[in-house]
Amino acid sequence: MNQEIKIIKNIIKNNQGKRVLILGTIGSDINRIGYKLGEVYDNVFYKTFKSEYGLDANFYCLNKEEINKIKEKIKVKKNIPMFSNIILDCDLIIYIHINKDVLKIKALYNEVDYEKSLNYQKELENKLNNMNTKIIKIESIPNNINLNKIPRNVYICCDLKLDEIPYSKTENEFSDNNSYESIIRFPYIKMIKSIDEIRRKQGFLLIIDEKYLEDNIINIDIKYRHLFNNFIYVWIVTKDKNKLVKKHLKYSNIYFVDRFSFANNGIDGQLLSTHYDYIMNVDIKINNKNMEKLKEYIIGKKRITSISVAKHFGISIRQAERYLKNYNLIYKNIGYDFLKNEWYITNTKS
Predict the structure, then answer these.
(1) Residue 207's closest CA among 239, 231, 183?
(2) How many domains does one find in the chain?
(3) Residue 263, class by beta-carbon neighbours within 10 Å (0-12 exposed, 13-18 middle, 19+ buried)?
(4) Which CATH number goes with the domain that contains 276?
(5) Which domain holds residue 297?
(6) Is residue 203 classed as helix, strand or coil in its secondary structure?
(7) Quick check: pTM over 0.85?
(8) Nearest-CA neighbor of 32 among 12, 13, 51, 46?
C-alpha cells in the first residue's frame, strides 16, 4: 500500500489546481489509502453516503436514483482529492484497478459480496472507456496473492492455558466457506513452555508473556530478534500500558499487546486484521543498491547513527535513514533507539 500512496501523491503533486477523483470498486479498501494520505484528501463521499443511508448500508444495494441523489450532494473540489466508489464530475480520475484474487480477499475481509464487487469494477471500467475525462489507471498492490506461501502457525508461550484464551477452535472453526476466515485458516494454534522451544519453531505469529524476557524493550529486541525472525509477527503480552506504543520498536516485528484484552477478547479479530495487513504489504519492493556496502560498514558495530552513515557514504542524513530502513527489511537485524537517536544492531545468536 505504501507504493500506491507514493504513486498517488506524485500524481496529485503534478496536477495542482485540478479536481482529482480517486476511484475504486466496492470493497476495494480505497478509504484505507485515504487514511494513509492523511489531511490531503476529502472523505465527504463516505460521510454523505453513511449519513444518507446509515452506517450499515451496502453501497451496491443502491439503485440509480439513490446514487444520483448522492452525486447531487457531492462536488469534487480543486486541490482536495476525493475518494469515491462512483464517478463524479472532475478534471482527473485516478482509477485503482484490483487483481481478481486480491479483490476477493479485500471484499471478503470488508464483508462485501465478491461477485458484486467484481461486476461493479467491470461496470466502472466500461463507463471509463466512454469518457473524455483524463484517466490514470494504477494497479493495486499487491498484484497477486499466494496464501499457500504465508505460514499459518501460531505459538503461544504464556502462563494462560489454551482453553483460557478465546479463539475459534479447530473442530468447528471457519464453517462458513464464504468468510475471510475460511480462506486464510489458522489450523495450528499451540502452546509452548519456554524460550528454548521457540528456537525450534517458526510460523506466522508468536505470542509470548513478557515475564520470559528482559524488562527493557530495546534489550528485548537486541537479544531475541534473531529468534523472533522465525515468525512474521511477535506479540509480547504485557500489563505495562507504556509499552503498547509501537514507536519504541518501529523497525522490528515485535508488538506489545494488552494482557487483559488478550485474555478476555481472544486473538481472532487481531489475528485476522494482522494477517490482512501483512498480505496487503507483502509485495514491497526494496532497492538492493548499496546494501552490501552498508552491510560491510555495519559488521562489528553495536551502534551507529544516521549521521555517521551519511558521512561514510557521502549522502544526506535522509538518504542514510532510507538505506538503513531498507537494510533492515532485507536483513532484519537493526533497530532504532529513539531515546539515544542511535541505530542498534541485534544479536545473531544467544
Answers:
(1) 231
(2) 3
(3) middle
(4) 3.40.50
(5) 291-345
(6) strand
(7) no
(8) 46
